[in-house]
Amino acid sequence: MSKRIGSMSLKDIRDRGIEPMTLINYCARIGTSDAIEAFQSIGELVDDYSLKKISRSPARFSFDELMGLNKKIIQNISFQAKRVTAR
Q1: For the chain, which residues score pLDDT lower than 50?
Q2: Which architecture characterizes domain 10-86 according to CATH?
């Protein structure tokens, strides 16, 4: 990893505001050719997961992709919270 990212311990990830579901989504997709999607539940992710999708090539971590996915997850959380409140 580059020096600009620094440490990526779970504490550091939490301190950066990365949602747990973001990390789960990212880890499930890294190393595959699938687009990294913002699944809202572990059940959805499990239903779509397959070991056959994992590439033999080394996985490449992208902090920018992780942060972009986190933004989508947070937007969906906010949207769903507003939907529940509106009912």
Answers
A1: 1-2
A2: Orthogonal Bundle (1.10)
